[in-house]
Amino acid sequence: TMVGTYWLSAAVAVFLTVVSIATLPFFMQAIHVSENVYAQAREYILIVLAGIVVTMLYNMFSSIMRALGNSLMPFLFLVVGTVLNVVLDYVFIGSLGLGVKGAAWATVVAQFISVLLCLGYILLFDRSLLVFGTKKEHRPQAGLIKNLFLSGLALAMMYAVVNVGTVILQGGINGLGDMTVAAHVTARKISELCMTIFSCICSTVTTFTSQNYGAGKMDRVRAGLTIALGLCAVVATIEIVFIYVLGEPMIRLVSGTENADIIAMAKRYLRTDILFYYVLLVLLVLRNFLQGVGMKLITIVASIMEMIMKALTVRFFVAPFGYTAIIFCEPFTWIACAVIVVIGYLVWNKKATV
């Protein structure tokens, strides 16, 4: 299994790097990137795309450790990488004056440090995970690689659909001017930092749920879901307080600007969206839970709903309402998608109790 995972990860990383770099000009034109920022945006994205292999390595190593029951270390490494990303943003952009490409390098370097931490931990405590050699059992098996690929395809489709919706929404934001783009990028950076713990908990939910569901331990499946929702609720409460108390200093730090309009827009986005984190945590936890119990279709349906709502926002609401439409797009999307996954959970729970 390990060898198949390594080969599949390497192949996918190379494929995605080549295809994404080759199609970058098309997508940048499709989302109407402003000429004023086109060169900088292209430079930023190229650096991030060149680092796809780093992202793939982190996801691979952390997933292997979680599958073996070690969820703590991948979580800690992810937190270290995320915090380091913010620090490096300040150093590369503020101190070194690298501008937009500095932000890109900060992301790639922070992810690379996370990979090194994962690899170092494996070398120290479980070298058996690094399986190489010429023995028959160490050679890649086509059937096993095929099963691994198909198992991950549904989850990949879910995230792909979500990201297509994000790209569509970004196209609407780009038409609102450079200051709005700058404010939104800053707010999203901070928002993604806040969502880091959610992401780690939810990844664990999928692994924990699938393992216990496969073993027929339904009491642990339900207990895991309850604990995950509770943990995420505590995190959401802390983050809401954090954003309302320290949101503005964070915006100044991340953006490196004193422009009052940019700061005001970013603060408005954060203070609005974060209040809906309780809805978001239900969506994320249940979506990953349903993935773990094999209800892959409902997770894809929810993702398609998210894409559709973002497309409708860009088509009908950005022009009359401006950035306000962008701010409220995600909360309304979270609510709609949460309804879908809650229905999916109720359907599963009814079948599971029969």
Short description:
The protein has twelve helices and no strands. It has 354 residues and is mainly α.
Give an overview of the whole structure.
- The protein has helices at 2-30, 35-50, 52-67, 72-95, 100-125, 142-174, 178-214, 218-255, 260-273, 277-292, 296-321, 323-353.
- The longest helix is centred in the last third of the chain and has 38 residues, at 218-255.
- By secondary structure, it is mainly α.
- The chain starts with a helix and ends with a helix.
- It is globular.
Query: What is the CA-based Rg, rounded?
Result: 21 Å
The largest pleated sheet is described as: none
Query: How many extended strands?
Result: 0
Large-scale geometry: globular
Overall helicity: over 70%
The assigned structural class equals mainly alpha
User: What fraction strand?
Assistant: under 5%
Which features does this protein show?
86% helix; 354 residues; mainly alpha
Secondary-structure blueprint:
Blueprint: H1 2-30, H2 35-50, H3 52-67, H4 72-95, H5 100-125, H6 142-174, H7 178-214, H8 218-255, H9 260-273, H10 277-292, H11 296-321, H12 323-353
Helix pairs in contact: 1-2, 1-3, 1-6, 2-5, 3-4, 3-5, 4-5, 4-7, 6-11, 7-8, 7-9, 7-10, 8-9, 8-10, 9-12, 10-11, 10-12, 11-12
